[in-house]
Design goal:
By secondary structure, the chain is of the alpha/beta class. Helix content is about 55%, strand content about 10%. Bound molecules: zinc ion. The site of zinc ion (ZN) has 10 residues, from helix 3.
């Protein structure tokens, strides 16, 4: 695992924070690695060899609890269940770790419920909040957490280039090339696609004065699809919506 020296040292000394924000594309992988370090009984956590480490690796450790899944919005009910569970002592390890996937989809009352748990919850409980960008959580919740930024595989630069291409295609309005481009988007990772949409929207705004009548409805369509990304399940859906939204106008 590609962690900084700072974090490697902290894991070794078992200086483990109560709450972590994990970002970057490898955040789930990081979460598993860190969870091992929290429950590990070896001399150099995570040793990868003790029973705890092995159970985490197999996804069967009873004290490492995953809430939600990538691409699906979290519900307040899930947070309530988590809160109730947090007051039950760990089964096998010294700590109990909650891995909260897709944390950014929690609404305000869900995030506030988590905040309360961070403030008042038992010491053995630790929380990992997984999300693409730390700014997506309420500042009150964020301020209680330490952040580990993981890897981002695609450079901003590549994305810029693609956003320009996408914006040009929308401006030119050739249906066939636009459809081909949208189909190609299905191969992207979800957060790459969201980033591309954000950049394409900016790009399109800069061209708006060239042909406002034509571009404005397309810009609105793009914004609508971007807004739906907060709820939707996968890139296939998003790409399909883009295709429908951009070609019917
Ligand atoms: Zn271990």
């Amino acid at each position: 695992m590609n962690l900084s020296e700072h974090w490697k040292n902290r894991l070794l000394r078992r200086q483990l924070p109560h709450a972590l924000l994990l970002t970057g594309e490898n955040r789930r992988e990081m979460a598993d690695y860190l969870a091992s370090a929290y429950v590990c009984e070896g001399a150099q956590p995570p040793c990868g060899e003790c029973l705890h480490c092995r159970k985490v690796k197999m996804g069967i450790h009873p004290d490492v609890i995953v809430i939600g899944e990538d691409g699906v919005s979290l519900k307040v009910d899930q947070v309530r269940a988590l809160r109730a569970d947090a007051y039950v002592r760990p089964n096998e390890a010294e700590r109990k770790i909650y891995v909260v996937e897709n944390s950014q989809t929690l609404n305000q009352s869900g995030q506030n419920a988590l905040l309360k748990l961070l403030e008042e919850g038992p010491d053995y409980a630790a929380f990992f909040f997984l999300l693409p960008n730390p700014e997506q959580l309420l500042p009150t919740l964020r301020s209680r957490c330490e952040t580990i930024r993981g890897e981002t595989y695609q450079t901003e630069c590549q994305n810029d280039h693609e956003a320009q291409e996408f914006s040009n295609l929308i401006c030119q309005g050739n249906q066939e090339t636009l459809i081909t481009f949208c189909v190609g988007l299905e191969k992207k990772k979800r957060e790459e696609l969201v980033l591309l949409l954000d950049q394409t929207i900016e790009e399109l705004i800069s061209h708006l004065t060239e042909n406002p009548e034509r571009l404005l409805p397309r810009l609105d369509a793009l914004r609508e699809v971007r807004a739906s990304c907060e709820y939707t399940v996968g890139v296939g859906h998003i790409a399909g919506w883009l295709m429908a939204a951009l070609t019917e106008k």
